[in-house]
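Recall the central idea of this unit: under ordinary conditions, the amino acid sequence of a chain determines the structure it adopts. In this exercise we apply that idea directly, starting from the sequence alone.
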Amino acid sequence: MKQLPSQVHQFHRHPQAPWLELRVSLSSPHCFRLHAHDEYSIGIIDGGQALFSHADGPERVRQGSVVLIEPGRWHACNPDEITHWSYRMLFVKADWLHAQLQLPALRFPARALHDAASSDIAHQLCQPLAAADDIAAHTSLLLSFLRANAEVDDQSIPAQAIASNQAIRHAVEQLHAQPQADTTVASLAQACGMSASRFIRHFKAATGVTPGAYRLNLRLNGARRLLAQGAALADAAHSMGFADQAHLQRSFKAHHALTPGRYALGANCPPSP
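Accordingly, the structure predicted from this sequence is:
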């Protein structure tokens, strides 16, 4: 097993496996706001325990527990009060995974797994890739694990969460199309034929969060993608509609418990000769 880094939070990326990103957090006291990822997420708790909050309700997870999250699913996972916890989270790009499995989308019937077999596989999956030779074996194990623990989902997210509300669906599609735009709640509400207060209530009922929180999450995910690809901090901030680098710094750290600069550095493994 490769030795894990000493920093509280580290990200590992391999240039020959751009569909994967691994987060390793050691003895962390940090709590996270409700958020959603663009990727499929497979996590394992290495120490301590936490409350895993998701659309199906809060669920206690502890050492050895495995968490499974689809793209667009709002969630939060936070340690018990005045405690530290350690965990690893593997992020898998959705488009790559759908192409590998030849499926439109996946959903996880169980949000958390607590059996030893699942824990052992997640432990293997949530390891930094040290060499290009590891990629094929990792891919095979990943696809096998997902075939066993996921099912086909024919309705995409976030459309699934807002299918019953055409007006809110239109607003969500607009935010996804231009997350960097300075679109106001008032203009979105007007397009939906609602007052601002009524629009916010309907939006939160459909998505679980306010329009402002939804757009900020989109911007942060976009900035994260750009930074992982090597974009400068100023360029990422400008491209995703942040007022300046300081605004991105504050928001990114509040959501990810580390600065965007530290995230961009990651721990990229060089390709094997």
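The longest strand covers residues 20-28.
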